Amino acid sequence: MASFVKEYIDYKTIPIALALAVFGLVSIYSATYDAQMSEVTYKQLIWAGVGTAVMCIVALTPLRMLQRLSYPAYFLSLLLLASVLLLGKTVSGSTSWFNFGTLRFQPSEFAKITTVLAIAMYLARNDVSLRKVKDLAVVGSMVIIPVVLILKQPDTGTAIIYFGMLFPVLYWGGATRFTLLAIVAPLVAAIAALFGTTPFLISVIVLGTLLYLTKEHRIVAAIVFSVTVLVGISVQSIYSGLKPYQQKRIDTFLDPAADPQGAGYNVLQSKVAIGSGGFFGKGYLHGTQTQLNFIPEQWTDFIFCVPGEEFGFFGSTIVLVLFMGLLLRGITIASSVKTPYGSLVALGVTAIFATHVFINIGMSLGLLPVIGVPLPFLSYGGSAMITNMAMVGLLANLHAHRKEY
After folding, report:
1. pLDDT per residue as tens digits for the range 231-272
2. Could you tell me the residue ranges of all domains in the chain?
3. Cβ neighbours of residue 129 under 8 Å, at least 6 residues apart?
4. Beta strands, E only, 46-124
């Protein structure tokens, strides 16, 4: 019996996910305690239960069935993303949810999983190679299509998660370093250009050096470098042509501290909460920023400040260690699975988790722009909880089938 459990049941990944979910419930209860919003915790508890059931179902589903469903599920998710633009409910300026009475469903969460499955299915074909422009374009389009539909909602935060998943999957799938650099370089130059001429010039020098060191065909490298420079110059030109209030919006997005009473308010309050927690925190239900509701709807995107304030550095470290354990388990499973499909799915799921954690905690600490990315298992949200649990179920499934060819 012990050997069976060790061989087929993922007794590491699942407990980590459940521990994070419990941490989330505890944090949400505290964040809504004085606001008389106990139903928020109750709903999240229900979603955690539903998510656990979904996790078990996914973990026990035959791997070949998941493969057969990869493309149909992907096209279904595209249909849902298109439909929500016409039939969805608008909340906080974003038309991202289907409304079923008291229940809401966010198809962009479901689409994250199906996109990973579809890409893995395509790259697992023997006749596909990411060294071919055609195959690279196909994979790129499989991400761009849902991203465009999500940006139409608009939901920039969720759209960015898809790109955070794409690049690790491309690398895992066999794309060359030059290919990845050629894709990333214009984006890096564009972002650097928004921060000023000096950051842009530094990025150009660094990117140019990296392109040279890849030792690809010099003409191709020169073309990529030229495009990178042109993109950066174009962004600077467009920014200069904007009206002052439009420039201020971009500046505030990149640096929330520039508008402490507006867009930067949540970030500043979050930093105060986390910084005031000290080593062991102020005690459960005793956080001043948390209990006095200085951070609006902190149980969603800024949930990390709750354990940071009430459990201090010690509590924050526990959360980070749990996430690190989850990510390491995902990479371990991706490395141990024998089939290309399973390995790519495991890596894609892990990349989604990593992108969420990196961006959300970066937002909470004021290191990254606020773009509305929830913290997996901790932030309030039914669709996100079920999706996260389903992805854990995928990892558990792949762990059980890791030795199959």
Report:
1. 999 988 888 888 886 777 777 777 776 677 766 788 888 888
2. 2-400
3. 135, 174
4. 89-91, 94-100, 103-105
